[in-house]
Design a protein that fits this description.
Elements (H helix, E strand, L loop, with lengths): L1 H9 L26 E3 L8 E5 L3 E6 L2 E6 H6 L7 E2 L4 E2 L14 E5 L2 E5 L5 E5 H7 L1 H5 L11 H7 L4 E2 H6 L1 H14 L1 E5 L5 H8 L5 E2 L7 E3 L15 E4 L11 E10 L5 E5 H11 L1 H9 L2 E9 L2 E9 L2 E4 L4 E5 L14 H18 L6 E3 L6 E5 L3 E5 L5 E9 L1 H9 L6
Helix pairs in contact: 9-10, 9-11, 10-11
GO molecular function: iron ion binding; trimethyllysine dioxygenase activity
Subcellular location: Mitochondrion matrix
EC number: 1.14.11.8
């Protein structure tokens, strides 16, 4: 996939802003020369019209014009013989569908589309379902609603922290936490007993703990027990954690158990807000950062810890159908040798990287937080970059990584879009 994207870049194709793929070929000539057929729908339903083509049905419903391939239509049949409504799993063997299949009859009744196939099987689709689940419909959908923020926006929002007992003992408290976390990419739980054991209880409230090369729950101090700058007293620039994993960890949990000294504030930056500014000001840079894969690497040989992790991917990861950003992979510490980018693209990539870095480092984008015992911070590691100012004295944190999928599952089960 990355080779295809780079080949396209080298060909010099210049897509329109926000467009990531070569244009689709034009539809074949219609089988029927007649104009599109208009059909009355229910009084409250949008107008509907359709036209048969060689390999697809062109369906206009409200403001959405869909091109629905016949194989796709047959494959997504929701009849009892094709789809198990109890398990919500497909029963139809997709590979058995004739790739040249065409419906023998098409009709619209009320808010439903009916197709009769050559073997007599009838598929019924709700027009609203088609409009929502078609490619054209998905291009208009937002997968994950968010509030992009800089320091002023977040502070003015006055997002409340969640009390530990309210969070642990009530579904309402958990839902409030998840809502804030989904919208802003960070959330706080207050009044947590400052121990690793209680931090683990709080973390497991929203997700399964992800075990990594660092273990499950970890203590974190400046003893250089691991081969990482984080295990020192030095300042840390904003970054994404575990970019050297093929899939960076989804959520990170921090709890400062003790600090006897000065400094050590935590830096938080909404990476999606910064990336959006790049998209608006220099869309060609955004495009490049979303296409060019680079390596990130973690090499460790300290004490009994010996690891060599490598992850590959672009700095910005987007859904190709609607260009929505879902993951930023930015870590200048762990970025490996750039050997995945051909010469004609390298200098352009550095310019794009410079533009993104400048946005991430703008002072008004920086939210500084002093972590203290009892206050647990949850960070969406796919979105919000974190860092740290240098500190003195003894500072001990504990924390863990969480499975992103399980947290999103908890949100969906409570009626939140995630």
């Amino acid at each position: 996939m990355w080779c295809q994207r780079l080949a396209w870049l080298l060909q010099g194709c210049q897509g329109t802003p926000g467009h990531h793929w070569p244009r689709l070929p034009r539809a074949p000539r219609p089988l029927l020369a007649a104009p599109a057929r208009c059909h009355p729908t229910a009084a409250a339903s949008p107008p509907c019209a359709w036209q048969l083509h060689q390999d697809h049905l062109e369906l206009s419903y409200g403001s959405t014009v869909m091109r629905l391939d016949f194989v796709w239509l047959r494959d997504h049949c929701r009849s009892a013989s094709c789809y198990n409504a109890k398990t919500r799993q497909r029963s139809l063997d997709t590979a058995s569908v004739d790739l040249a299949i065409q419906p023998q009859a098409v009709r619209v009744e009320g808010s439903s589309l009916f197709l009769t196939w050559p073997d007599g099987h009838v598929t019924r689709y709700g027009l609203e379902w088609l409009a929502k689940n078609s490619y054209e419909g998905q291009k208009q959908q937002v997968m994950h609603p968010r509030i992009l923020w800089n320091a002023e926006i977040y502070q003015q929002a006055q997002v409340p922290s969640i009390d530990c007992q309210h969070f642990l003992q009530t579904d309402e408290g958990l839902k409030e936490f998840l809502q804030s976390f989904l919208l802003y990419g960070i959330a706080f739980v207050e009044n947590v007993t400052p121990t690793k054991e209680h931090t683990e209880i709080v973390a497991k409230r929203i997700s399964i703990i992800r075990e990594t090369i660092y273990g499950r729950m970890w203590y974190f101090t400046s003893d250089f027990s691991r081969g990482d700058t984080a295990y020192t007293k030095l300042a840390l620039d904003r970054h994404t954690d575990t970019t050297y994993f093929q899939e960076p960890c989804g959520i990170q949990v921090f709890h400062c158990l003790k600090h006897e000294g000065t400094g050590g504030r935590t830096l938080l930056v909404d990476g999606f807000h910064a990336a959006e500014q790049v998209r608006l000001q220099a869309p060609e840079h955004f495009e490049l950062l979303a296409k060019v894969p680079v390596r990130h690497e973690y090499v460790e040989s300290v004490g009994g810890c010996h690891n060599h992790m490598v992850g590959v991917g672009p700095l910005l990861n987007v859904y190709p159908w609607n260009n929505e950003l879902y993951l930023i992979r930015y870590n200048n510490y762990d970025r490996a040798v750039i050997n995945t980018v051909p010469h004609p693209v390298v200098r352009r990539w550095y310019r794009a990287h410079r533009a993104l870095t400048a946005e991430l480092r703008r002072p008004h984008n920086e939210l500084w937080v002093k972590l203290k015992p009892g206050k647990v911070l949850f960070v969406d590691n796919w979105r919000v970059l974190h860092g740290r100012e240098a500190f003195t004295g003894y500072r001990q944190l504990c924390g863990c990584y969480l499975s992103r999928d399980d947290a999103l599952n908890a949100a969906r089960l409570r009626g939140l879009q995630a």
